[in-house]
Each structure stands twice: as structure tokens, then as C-alpha cells.
């Protein structure tokens, strides 16, 4: 048999240890995996909200849900509550659930718009189980025969520690040390990492999980970083943890302020808080004051300052190195896509893994897919900022009036004129996601598909009433979110 391919992962944290465990779980028989990290170098680890794709990935690599949730003080997440985004003092919900019932010719929101035009139909929110359950603070993995679509709120530091334990038990070798030198051959490929303790870690393929620094991909392979701050101005964040003063709610809150937004992520044992903002419109002291003045519990950590530039590496895979996580690019956490981007990068890598020979075409395909994915998510995040009526600060005036990517402008225009929506190019944000954000921030179609008139008025009334009643009955039978957690996945004693 051929010798195992030697994979060296530079950096730990969520990206590093998720890479290690994923590769050893699925390709451990053909890979020899070493992870290099230093206890002297901290990780971002501010706490994470996730999206439902994480559940599918966990099943792929064999992570048991209850065990993982208990180890990471996790709670459930059914969506995101957006406050003050379209206008001050308004609110809407982006849920993970399906709204109403799908039709091949016209989407459900168009049938609902027809009902509203005829004077009935209620709120669009009435037709989504996950949304109504979130607002009622209820949760279960099943609602009768229907599977609930959910994600998690997790402690990112605990998650990395959990993955490290599983990785080492499965055969991943951990090397403690700071990388002092990166050795390359005459073709520019990396051959080994030299550590401050004198250890030499040789490898065939290297994964850069060194965070914003991009030690391998940027500093030593000279891959340029494409700056997207002209589209997404935020370049700062401050994070702080607080005591929990209420039962955890099954959703993330994002509260817009005059020059950014604040997150609130409830775990079993505490609450993660933070503010994302642009230094062009708000000083660090002002941002800290806004954040600390809008906490709902006593701080239990000192505020942690983060600086970043939104954008991406022009190549995520170059020569024999691939960047995963923050080293490959960064999109602010507005739609909780950070861990998702790690998992999709790992899926892509496992499918295209270079087992020798000429791997240039594999890298080219990887980079093409990675670029499309990041640009698609970028457009969805821009939508939240640009689609606003707020004019109370230079920050919101900037976003409301700025030029946006043609792809997003086209999507907004066709929805405004005709009510038509389609899933994004990478299948992440569904029709319902686009509808909830666009309508939630005040963009209502001028007309809708007339296929919604195929049903006579009484038939449409009957079907909508049945759907609303089903949602109401299902939510009424769900337990309280906190009660379900206590039985299903109580946090381990720390």
C-alpha cells in the first residue's frame, strides 16, 4: 500500500480542530494528520451562532448531537430576530423553517399576497412553525410527524476543546509550539514547519488555520487579500460574556445601532454579546459604550476587541496549501455563516483531496467554488444593510445610497416588480430566506404571480386557515425551550 499522505494543520481553534476531526473521521485510513498550535496564541473563540447545515455535517463525521451539545453548553436556534434594521423600532424574524406550502409555479408568499389583496390571510409569520415556536420560546426536535429545522448556539472555545479530544482519540497528533519558519522547495511548495522548540514538522499538504493572520497562505505563499470593505464597511467587533438573567431563547438577536449592530447569543450557562461596527463611523470607545449600555446581565468577562477586513484570499488553495476559516476570508457574523464556511471548505477539500500527481486543476476548481460561495453570502449580507429606510446617521445613509453588486440589484428589482424569488447559486439561502429579509425590511412586490388565483377565494381561505391552524396546534404542544434542553442535553459541569 502507498504510504499515508502527511497533512499538517497550522493552528487550532474551531477551524483547526474541525479540520482535523473531519479528515481523520472520513479519510483517516489514508492520511497522517498533525496539528500544530500554541497555548500562547489565543483564538477568536467569542461564541458562535450556527445554521442548520451544521447538523448535516456533524452526521457525516459522526458527531452525536446530545454529547456535543452538553459539552459546548449549547442551546437550540430556530432563526434570527432583527431589530431596527428596516427602520428604527421595527422588528422581523428570519426563520429556518418553511413558510406555508410550496407550489411548483408560484411561491407561497404569492398566494398569501393574493389573500391579502382580497382582505384575509393574516401575517406571513403565521404559516411558519419554526418562527412561531421561536417567538413562543418553545422547542422540540419533532413537532408531531414534522421534523423541526434548527441549528445551535455554542461555546466556540468549548467546541474546539471537544473536537480536540475526539481528534486525538482518533489518531491526530498535536504538536505544541510557535511556528518560527516555513520551509519551501524550489517550486515554492511548503515542505515543513520549524517550531520555536526546534521541532521540524514535515508534510505533503498543509492547511492554514492561523486566523486573520494567514501565516502560510498570506505571509509565506504571498496570496493577496481582496478587500470588500467598499461593500461591507464593518471592520471592528467587541465581544463580552454576561450572566444569564432569563431562560435561553431559541433564536439569535441582532439589534441594529447607529453605526453597526449588536448580537445576543444565549447559551445554557451564559449569554454571548458583541457589537459589530465600522471605525469610519464609530470610535472604539463609543462602540464599547453602546455595547455595555445594552447588556441584559452582569458581565463575566472583560470586553474583547477584534479587528478585521471583510474580504477573501484571491486563492484559498495555492500550491500545496489550503486556507480554511478566517485565513481564507471573513464575512461578518450577521447570518451566522462562519462555521458553515469551514464545513463547506472541508467538504470541498475531501472531494478534491490531492493524493499526488498534478493537482493544479483540483485547486482551480476548489478556488472557483469557494469564490462563488463567498460572493453569494456577501450579497445576502449586503441586502440587510442596503435595504433600509434609516437616515438617522452617516452609517445608514452610506449603506442606503451605496452601489451594490449587479447580481443583488437584479434580485431586488425583479422581486420589487414581480414578487419572483429563487434560491441562491450555492443553495444556502432558500426562497423563504430571501422573502423574509426583503419583506421584513420593507420591500413589498408591486404585483405577484396570477397563478395564485387558480384557487377560488373560498378554497384559498380554507387552505390558509388549515395551514395556520396546523402551525398553532403544533406550537401549542411543544415544551418550553429550557425544559427540553434540561432533558435532552444538559450542560456538562465545567
The largest pleated sheet is described as: 7 strands, mixed
User: Class of the largest domain in CATH?
Assistant: Alpha Beta
Q: Globular, elongated, flat, extended or rod-shaped: what is the shape?
A: globular
Q: Going across the biggest sheet, name each strand in turn.
A: 6-5-17-18-19-16-20
Q: Based on DSSP secondary structure assignment, what is the total number of beta strands?
A: 24
Mean pLDDT: 95
CATH architecture of the largest domain: 3-Layer(bba) Sandwich
The third-level CATH topology of the largest domain is: FAD/NAD(P)-binding domain
- Put simply, the count of helices is 15
Range of strand content: 15-25%
Question: What's the topology here?
Answer:
Layout: E1 5-10, H1 13-27, E2 31-37, E3 48-49, H2 53-61, H3 65-71, E4 75-77, E5 79-83, E6 91-95, H4 108-117, H5 129-135, E7 142-143, E8 146-147, E9 151-154, H6 156-169, E10 173-176, E11 179-184, E12 190-195, E13 200-202, E14 205-208, H7 215-220, E15 225-227, E16 236-242, E17 252-257, E18 260-266, E19 271-277, H8 284-292, E20 304-307, E21 311-313, E22 317-318, E23 321-323, E24 329-330, H9 338-351, H10 360-386, H11 394-401, H12 406-418, H13 431-440, H14 457-476, H15 481-488
Parallel strand pairs: 1-2, 1-14, 2-10, 5-17, 14-23
Antiparallel strand pairs: 3-9, 4-9, 5-6, 7-8, 11-12, 12-13, 15-21, 16-19, 16-20, 17-18, 18-19, 21-24, 22-23
Helix pairs in contact: 1-6, 1-9, 9-10
Amino acid at each position: 500500500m502507498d504510504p499515508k499522505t502527511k497533512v499538517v494543520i497550522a493552528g487550532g481553534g474551531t477551524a483547526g480542530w474541525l479540520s482535523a476531526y473531519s479528515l481523520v473521521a472520513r479519510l483517516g485510513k489514508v492520511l497522517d494528520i498533525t496539528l500544530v498550535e500554541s497555548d500562547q496564541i489565543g483564538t477568536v473563540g467569542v461564541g458562535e451562532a450556527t445554521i442548520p447545515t451544521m447538523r448535516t455535517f456533524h452526521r457525516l463525521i459522526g458527531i452525536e448531537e446530545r454529547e456535543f451539545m452538553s459539552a459546548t453548553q449549547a442551546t437550540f436556534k430556530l432563526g434570527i430576530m432583527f431589530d431596527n434594521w428596516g427602520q428604527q423600532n421595527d422588528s422581523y424574524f428570519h426563520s429556518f423553517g418553511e413558510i406555508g406550502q410550496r407550489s411548483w409555479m408560484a411561491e407561497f408568499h404569492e398566494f398569501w399576497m393574493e389573500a391579502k389583496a382580497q382582505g384575509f390571510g393574516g401575517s406571513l409569520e403565521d404559516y411558519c412553525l419554526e418562527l412561531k415556536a421561536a417567538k413562543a420560546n418553545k422547542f422540540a426536535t419533532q413537532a408531531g410527524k414534522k421534523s423541526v429545522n434548527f441549528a445551535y448556539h455554542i461555546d466556540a472555545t468549548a467546541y474546539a476543546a471537544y473536537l480536540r479530544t475526539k481528534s486525538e482519540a482518533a489518531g491526530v497528533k498535536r504538536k505544541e509550539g510557535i511556528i518560527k519558519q516555513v520551509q519551501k522547495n524550489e517550486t515554492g511548495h511548503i515542505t515543513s514547519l520549524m517550531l520555536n522548540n526546534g521541532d521540524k514538522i514535515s508534510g505533503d499538504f498543509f492547511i492554514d488555520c492561523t486566523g486573520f493572520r494567514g501565516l502560510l497562505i498570506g505571509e509565506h505563499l504571498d496570496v493577496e487579500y481582496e478587500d470588500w470593505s467598499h461593500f461591507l464597511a464593518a471592520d471592528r467587533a467587541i465581544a463580552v460574556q454576561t450572566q444569564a438573567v432569563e431562560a435561553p431563547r431559541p433564536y439569535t438577536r441582532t439589534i441594529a445601532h447607529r453605526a453597526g449592530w449588536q448580537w445576543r447569543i444565549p447559551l445554557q450557562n451564559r449569554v454571548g454579546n458583541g457589537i459589530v461596527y465600522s471605525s469610519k463611523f464609530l470610535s472604539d470607545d463609543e462602540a464599547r459604550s453602546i455595547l455595555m449600555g445594552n447588556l441584559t446581565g452582569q458581565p463575566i468577562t472583560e470586553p474583547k476587541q477584534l479587528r478585521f477586513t471583510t474580504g477573501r484570499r484571491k486563492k484559498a488553495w495555492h500550491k500545496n496549501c489550503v486556507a480554511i476559516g478566517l485565513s481564507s476570508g471573513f464575512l461578518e457574523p450577521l447570518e451566522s455563516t462562519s462555521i458553515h464556511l469551514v464545513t463547506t471548505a472541508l467538504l470541498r477539500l475531501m472531494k478534491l483531496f490531492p493524493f499526488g500527481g498534478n493537482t493544479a486543476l483540483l485547486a482551480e476548481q476548489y478556488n472557483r467554488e469557494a469564490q462563488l460561495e463567498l460572493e453569494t453570502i456577501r450579497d445576502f449580507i449586503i441586502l440587510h444593510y442596503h435595504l433600509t429606510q434609516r437616515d438617522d446617521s452617516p452609517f445608514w445613509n452610506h449603506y442606503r445610497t451605496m452601489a451594490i453588486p449587479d447580481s443583488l440589484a437584479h434580485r431586488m428589482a425583479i422581486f420589487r416588480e414581480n414578487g419572483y424569488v429563487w434560491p441562491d447559486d450555492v443553495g444556502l439561502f432558500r426562497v423563504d430566506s430571501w422573502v423574509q429579509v426583503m419583506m421584513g425590511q420593507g420591500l413589498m412586490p408591486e404585483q405577484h404571480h396570477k397563478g395564485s388565483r387558480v384557487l377560488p377565494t373560498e378554497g384559498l381561505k380554507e387552505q390558509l386557515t388549515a395551514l395556520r391552524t396546523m402551525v398553532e396546534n403544533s406550537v401549542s404542544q411543544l415544551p418550553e425551550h429550557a425544559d427540553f434542553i434540561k432533558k435532552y442535553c444538559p450542560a456538562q459541569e465545567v
